[in-house]
Design brief:
The complex is a heterotrimer. Chain A folds into two domains: 1-28; 38-138. In chain A, a hairpin with a 4-residue loop joins strand 3 and strand 4. The longest helix of chain A has 26 residues, at 3-28. By secondary structure, chain A is α/β, with parallel strands linked by helices. Chain A has helices at residues 3-28, 31-35, 139-153, and strands at 39-46, 57-60, 63-74, 79-87, 99-104, 111-116, 128-130, 132-134. Classes of the chains: A alpha/beta, B alpha/beta, C mainly alpha. Chains A and C meet through helix 1 and helix 2 of A and helix 2, helix 5, helix 6 and helix 7 of C. The structure holds adenosine-5'-triphosphate and magnesium ion (MG). The site of magnesium ion has 4 residues of chain B, from helix 1. The site of adenosine-5'-triphosphate has 13 residues of chain B, from helix 1 and helix 11.
Chain lengths: 154, 285, 257
């Protein structure tokens, strides 16, 4: 094995590693959505976020337009404050009366935020707040409500 | 006992060993060794297998440290040198190991070129020139592209000799250079050691069991046994020594006056690697 | 009884002594790493020996592990109607755990044992002494390049293992079992984070690479220079490395995820 062949093989080895890292970064993990999240942020306050996690997707009509970048608790309003990062291509897209709701993909699936645009002419800008929100449906509460209304109704 | 004791600062002594003590575990190897190795001469160290001849060479090279006593090489005390100084000193020493110790992942040529590449920035053409010169001297110019695994034991030894010589050391240590050599290459090696010693003016220190051959080119010989020098002097002086021990050892008589060994130390047997048996008998008090 | 206690105590002292020697050895070796800047070719050669030579076994194993994972995940998830998540399961399992761990074990068996055997034989055939007598520092020329190469190669191999495993999962999950291809990838992407999953997987690989190379090189340099000595040192390398990988993996997982 001469040293030239070794150099070439080690070079191939490095290329394979870069290829693997490319696959891991672009196909396997969400580095793409992280890096391309050069967008603008919106804030939405929810009474309850249920099982929503950071990096959950934000969709409008089922199409992904951004993702949740942070979730924190606002001690003044006693609400969960969710920061959404919306992709740059969707700037000036959502009217100020857009509704943000937390949905669940399927019965056991992940939770995500759905945006339902309103009819206002003014558009949401960077760091605006979405005032119209609909909290997550928490299964236990739902069952509790049903049981309560049943017993109350009878 | 005729081990020279006077301090020789007149520059005729290259290696000066004084009161050397060393042990491997609980087993003492040297207990008060005194040797002066003259500059520019061929010196042979003789002794039964397992007495510590290889160990002595390694101590001179600074690979093992004495527990007591001193070794001076060219005025420098080997055990006291800092790492960098020791490495500088080693550049001026060549050593031929018992097994050759060629780097198995390099070709013969690259092995011989290795010290040059490590320590100098010589241009490739000059390196190639020097290496081929040394390889030619040991008769291995045609084997330059072989890998060490393709060499016979004797060829490996010669390649290692070429490597030890390539850096033009001031002193070279040979650990049993003749084992595994056919009569012709043994003759060549003897000739080589002699001429190299004269032409390059270097000091040769040799360990060998091939007494007749080794003594034929030696200016000085030292017999060590049980950790001390038994006899030292020119080959002729040894030959005419009155010590029965020396006579027995030099002539390889199977039985003799030597009291500390039950089975006689036939030196041919030593060569066959019966050192375990001998040395164990040697230590048991 | 006293004899037993004595022997027990001696074994312990021996072990602690070995650990101390290994630590000093490591420090010495780390100190010699700087010399590699002057000789990058040594590193390339060792990357070949430890990386390229281990590549095929890692790729083949990775492919099969990914395929098995997809099969098992599918069979379990189909009961919940969640077979779209096969990709998630395959990717997370590979990137976080199996990638670094299985690669580490394969690396210890293939490259680690080879390192120990090579260095042990160099010691047995006096090559290391020979280098020292040529005023060449074996720490710089022999140990440091191997260490750095192992340290770097293992995480790289682990990344390749995970990547090809994900492809193997695609092969079985999507092409054979009929999971929707875009669901396979998008579910995977939603669940896998580059920094906390892929990144931590790489860190695990680096830690394993460090430990395996350290063990392998130390065992080689510390072995008894005979054929038995070398062979038992090689065995020790594989055993200690595997134990270290599994133990450290638990610790790292507890800290990271
Ligand atoms: N690494 C070691 N660990 C422990 N003991 C050793 C080691 N190397 C050598 N010895 C012991 O030291 C003694 C001297 O060994 P050395 O190799 O110097 O002998 P020698 O005189 O060169 O013998 P030979 O003529 O057979 O080469 C031997 O008895 C050997 O058992
Ligand atoms: Mg010897």
């Amino acid at each position: 094995m001469n040293s030239r062949a070794i150099d070439v093989l080690v070079g191939v080895f490095m290329l394979l590693f870069f290829g693997a890292m490319f696959i891991l970064a672009m196909k396997v993990s969400n580095l793409t959505s992280l890096t391309s999240s050069a967008g603008y942020t919106l804030v939405a306050k929810f009474e309850n976020v249920g099982g929503l996690k950071a990096r959950a997707s934000v969709a409008a009509s089922g199409v992904k337009v951004g993702e949740v970048s942070a979730i924190s608790y606002d001690p003044e309003t006693f609400e969960a404050s969710v920061t959404l990062t919306i992709d740059e291509t969707f700037s000036d897209t959502f009217p100020t009366d857009t509704t943000a709701s937390i949905y669940t993909a399927g019965l056991l699936g992940e939770q995500y935020i759905g945006l339902d645009p309103g009819a206002e002419i003014d558009m949401l800008q960077d760091s605006d707040e979405i005032t119209l929100t609909q909290s997550a449906i928490v299964l236990e509460r739902l069952i509790g409500q049903v049981l309560f209304s049943r017993s109350g109704g009878s | 006992m005729s081990s020279p004791d006077k301090m020789s600062d007149d520059g005729t002594t290259l290696v000066q060993i004084r009161d050397l003590h060393f042990s491997r575990g609980s087993k003492p190897i040297f207990s008060g060794l005194n040797i002066d190795i003259p500059r520019g001469k061929v010196t042979t160290i003789i002794g039964p297998s397992g007495t510590g001849k290889t160990t002595l060479l390694k101590m001179i090279g600074g690979q093992l440290k004495a527990s007591q006593g001193s070794i001076h090489v060219d005025g420098l005390q080997v055990g006291k040198l800092r790492r960098a100084e020791l490495y500088e000193l080693r550049k001026r020493m060549g050593m031929l190991f018992q097994s050759g110790a060629l780097l198995t992942d390099l070709s013969v040529f690259e092995n011989v070129a290795y010290p040059l590449r490590e320590h100098t920035d010589l241009p490739e053409s000059l390196i190639s020139h020097l290496v081929l010169m040394r390889l030619h001297a040991v008769g291995l110019r045609g084997a330059r592209n072989l890998s060490p695994s393709e060499l016979s034991g004797g060829m490996a030894r010669r390649a290692a000799l070429a490597r030890a010589l390539v850096f033009d050391p001031m002193m070279i240590m040979y650990d049993e250079p003749f084992t595994g050599q056919d009569p012709i290459s043994m003759g060549v090696l003897l000739e080589l050691i002699k001429t190299v010693n004269e032409a390059l003016g270097l000091t040769s220190l040799m360990v060998s069991h091939d007494l007749k051959e080794a003594l034929s080119i030696s200016d000085y010989a030292v017999i060590i046994s049980e950790g001390v020098v038994v006899e030292a002097g020119s080959p002729e002086q040894l030959e005419s020594s009155e010590s029965a021990w020396v006579q027995q050892f030099l002539h390889g008589q199977p039985d003799g006056p030597v009291p500390f060994q039950v089975s006689a130390p036939d030196y041919e047997e030593d060569l066959m690697g019966t050192e375990n048996g001998n040395s164990r008998v040697g230590v048991s008090r | 009884m006293i004899d037993f206690l004595q022997r027990f105590g001696r074994t312990w002292i021996d072990m602690v002594g070995r650990l101390g020697r290994a630590t000093l050895f490591l420090l010495h070796m780390l100190g010699a790493l700087g010399s590699l800047f002057a000789r990058p070719s040594l590193l390339v050669k060792q990357l070949y020996a430890s990386g390229v030579m281990t590549l095929s076994i890692v790729l083949v194993s990775g492919l099969f592990v990914g395929m098995v994972l997809a099969l098992q995940a599918y069979n379990t998830l189909i009961d919940f109607g969640q077979e779209n998540r096969v990709g998630t399961l395959v990717a997370l399992t590979l990137v976080r755990e199996l990638g670094p761990v299985v690669t580490g074990l394969l690396f210890a068996g293939r490259a680690g044992s080879a390192m120990t055997a090579e260095i042990g034989l160099m010691k047995a055939t006096e090559q290391l002494s020979g280098l020292e007598m040529m005023a060449v520092d074996p720490y710089k020329r022999v140990f440091a390049p191997r260490f750095l190469a192992g340290f770097l190669a293992l995480p790289m191999l682990a990344a390749m293992f995970s990547a090809i495993g994900v492809i193997g999962g695609h092969l079985i999950g999507v092409d054979v079992l009929g999971v929707d291809a875009s669901a396979y990838w998008s579910q995977m992407q939603n669940a896998t984070s580059f920094y906390s999953d892929v990144g931590n997987g790489l860190i695990k690989g680096l830690v394993f690479g460090f430990v395996v190379s350290w063990i392998a090189i130390f065992e080689g340099a510390d072995c008894i220079p005979t054929s038995e000595g070398v062979s038992s040192a090689t065995t020790r390398t594989v055993v200690y490395s595997s134990l270290a990988i599994l133990g450290l993996d638990f610790l790292l997982t507890a800290v990271m995820f």
